[in-house]
Amino acid sequence: MNKWLAFAMAFAIGGGVALAQEEQPGAKDFLAGQEAVKANNFDAAIPAFEKALAANPDLFASNYFLGWAYKAKQNWEKCGANFETFLRKVGTDPKAAEQVGHSNREGGLCYARGDSFTKAIPLLQKSASAKPNDKEVQFSLGVALMRENREGEAEQAFSKVIQLDPALQRAYYYAGRINFNRQEWDKASQRLEKYLELGASDTFAPDANFMLGSNAVRMAEGSPEAAALQQKAADHLTKFLAAKPTAPQAAQAHYILGSLAYQRDDVETAKSHFQKYLELEPTGTQAEEVKKFLAELTAQ
Length: 300
Fold this sequence. Notes:
Blueprint: H1 2-10, H2 27-38, H3 42-55, H4 61-72, H5 76-90, H6 97-113, H7 117-130, H8 135-147, H9 151-164, H10 169-181, H11 185-198, H12 205-220, H13 226-243, H14 250-263, H15 267-280, H16 287-299
Helix pairs in contact: 2-3, 3-4, 4-5, 4-6, 5-6, 6-7, 6-8, 7-8, 8-9, 9-10, 10-11, 11-12, 12-13, 13-14, 14-15, 15-16
């Protein structure tokens, strides 16, 4: 961070006035904060810079350094807030262009890590606009937009991440899930399959299997490859149930698997899945239909 220390000395007080003498309010604490930053002693830097700001709010370079210090301490909210304060106070001064870039990026990432997605988005958007090939910014922007239900914009960010780093697994999952929610079935399948190809033991693998299984059933309708697609659906849904037997989607998975078994006259498998559906959802949407299937199968 040494290259930013020179900036702080030249631009510590609003309007670009040099911090020429320690007699100015807050100057001694500001300089003490600088020395602490040089030594990576953020526990000392934070109170020094905060005392400097309390004595002289125009020492807004302190906010810039506090952003870095709070990042090191993983205090995401204060990290983001200080970078944001620095951005507001420094404005468009060309002497601070590099620091503005860092503040948009780091402030946005800190807010995102702290789940303050509404605050993160505008900073990350500015950072992504300035450096569109920053995959960490694009990924965090995609997550923030997705969490704020702005799925169209989020999908664009994840698509950019996939372009920049085809091996970044989670980008495929998030993009594929958005495609699934938007009923873009082909694109959803391609991305979710790629996600599983990159690592089938990842946290979201069961959910990917559920979506792929559900999707395969849809794609099987009227397809000349219906049998293969139905088997694909069964494979994915079986993997999902093995991992999440009591998940909210489990009853639906049993219903689909029971229906597929019923279609191929696999009586015992169909009965097993339908019975499990009723255990999980005795008054579910398809409960009456399942009871009729079971009565028919039992009579055979």
